[in-house]
Write a structure and sequence with these properties.
4-stranded antiparallel beta sheet, 11 helices, 315 residues
Length: 315
């Protein structure tokens, strides 16, 4: 269980951008070296986490800036656990939803595209009317890495194929595109480096082989958040910082969030209380992640339309 957690944490710690930079094809050698086990052990453990239903896969999206949109985040209250599951299903019919995350509690977060006031307003009303939703906060803009240049048609074809089969081998992807495996890998890495594509892990914490607890630390005004983050890591080296949806990963923040592996749920609050001894921390609130779901329709339709326009353009 502890080894599974350490391997999982390294999937995030091996990348520069832990919010949007977790792509398929992770460096298994780097993870194995950091954890102190063999590559084979890492592979077997990751396959085990997939079989349990914890690691549900990877999501790859084009940087929304390439399509002229941003992303919005909403905090919701859904007290009924059964209503939460129905809520995730109901979001399938709301165009423009990217992902939803529910806690083992009343809280939920929904991320949508930000494609104009009228579309956003209509979308918000549809979400707020879903059965079980008691409250919904105003939208907050999601932080996205810079992406200023456009991409070519062949790159859009690569993005489309990579989204469809994110864990395919480079050889399989290359055959679909009619290029060599090296070319496919190099082009994909180029898209990653340019932040033209963003990657995310799809997880269900109810299926992790152990109890994972989250804690949100509220900081006193003027407290240096990175100093507090470093103090947390010294106190509990295997705590994994959760990046904020609304700020760049290393920016100053009034709150910090971490995930921790605990023996039992009842230990979560007691462990979180230890963080109150860190200078500058005024409050520590415990929560338990549930599951997340990704909704692919909006980006799939836009990519299909873009490729169709390219094909229809006279040479």
């Amino acid at each position: 269980m502890t080894l599974d957690w350490r391997i999982y944490c390294q999937l995030y710690r091996q990348v520069e951008d832990p919010l949007w930079g977790v792509y398929p094809h992770p460096s298994i050698s780097s993870v194995a070296k950091a954890v102190g086990v063999t590559r084979g052990t890492v592979w077997r453990r990751l396959l085990g986490l997939e079989r349990t239903g914890f690691l549900k896969g990877y999501e790859v999206i084009p940087n929304p800036a390439l399509l002229g949109v941003g992303l919005n985040s909403y905090n919701l209250s859904i007290p009924d656990a059964r209503a939460q599951l129905r809520f995730l299903d109901a979001l399938e019919s709301v165009d423009g939803v990217l992902e939803a995350m529910v806690d083992l509690g009343p809280k939920a977060v929904v991320v949508t595209v930000a494609d104009g006031p009228s579309s956003s307003s209509r979308r918000e009303k549809m979400i707020a009317r879903i059965d079980g939703v008691e409250s919904m906060n105003r939208p907050v803009a999601v932080w996205l890495p810079d992406c200023t240049s456009n991409v070519s048609l062949e790159r859009w074809r690569l993005i489309s194929e990579f989204r469809r089969n994110p864990t395919s081998s480079w050889g399989t992807l290359a055959r679909r595109l009619g290029v060599s495996p090296r070319t496919a890998a190099n082009r994909c890495r180029s898209l990653q480096r340019g932040r033209h594509i963003l990657g995310y892990l799809n997880e269900n914490f109810e299926k992790f082989p152990g109890v994972v607890a989250g804690v949100v630390l509220t900081l006193n005004s003027g407290t240096e958040s990175r100093a507090v983050a470093a103090a947390v890591q010294r106190l509990e080296p295997e705590a994994l910082e959760i990046p904020s949806l609304t700020r760049s990963p290393r920016s100053q923040s009034p709150r910090l969030a971490f995930m921790r592996l605990v023996l039992r749920a009842s230990d979560a609050q007691r462990g979180a209380a230890a963080f109150l001894g860190i200078p500058g921390v005024s409050r520590a609130d415990t929560f338990f992640h549930g599951t997340m779901r990704f909704y692919r329709h909006w980006f799939d339709v836009r990519i299909i339309e873009l490729l169709a326009r390219h094909r229809a353009t006279p040479r």
